[in-house]
Specification:
This protein is mainly β. The protein is built from no helices and 16 strands.
């Protein structure tokens, strides 16, 4: 059963599978239908039957008076989920930073932790990647694409390396996506 969730400006989501087998889709919901708006928040919708049916959308986190956007989520390696997003002021076109939260069940969430704080904030897109030594996020700022890791469910993030330096290319790459391949290699996609 399809469940309509696009009755507002909904976008930028990630699907995760929780430890109990439930599917959780975490996404940005703009409450006024605009692409950028200080009336948006992070929502989730859950399926307990492998996606055949879906429950009602529910609020995960809302920064009052700001645009919660550029949502990325991923399994934490222990059956829970980590969500990373950017807090944006649509009126001034500046960023308040990027933050992360964690949940073991997709219902109760931790207090946000800082992922990055600056106007040249790292943006994380789409999906976080769990590995044996932590959860990885590929972020982008004006300088390049950076590999980051948390080993404590998103409380602290460490930038491990710059993977791509954007000044080496004539095209403005955006929205990088990290994929682990079955052979042990990783692939970065960007548009």
């Amino acid at each position: 059963g399809y469940k309509k969730v696009l009755n507002t400006h909904s976008r930028e989501g990630s699907m995760v599978k929780l430890g109990n087998g439930d599917l959780l889709f975490v996404y940005r919901k703009g409450l006024d239908g605009q692409h950028t708006s200080n009336e948006s928040a992070i929502y989730a919708i859950r399926s307990t039957d492998e996606g055949d049916t879906w429950g009602d959308p529910y609020l995960v986190y809302d920064t009052p008076g700001r645009d919660d956007r550029n949502i990325a989520a991923g399994e934490d390696g222990n059956g829970g989920v980590i969500v990373v997003w950017r807090v944006f002021d649509a009126d001034t076109a500046t960023s308040d930073g990027a933050f992360s939260i964690h949940s073991t069940d997709g219902v109760t969430w931790t207090t946000p932790s800082v992922f990055a704080s600056s106007n040249n904030v790292d943006l994380v897109y789409q999906k976080l990647v769990p590995r044996p030594d932590g959860v990885y996020a590929l972020s982008k700022d004006d300088a390049g694409f950076h590999l980051n890791r948390t080993s404590d469910n998103g409380l602290n993030w460490v930038r491990l390396t710059t993977v791509v330096t954007l000044s080496d290319y004539s095209l403005p790459f955006v929205e990088p996506f990290l994929i682990d391949l079955p052979n042990g290699n990783s692939l970065i996609l960007a548009r």
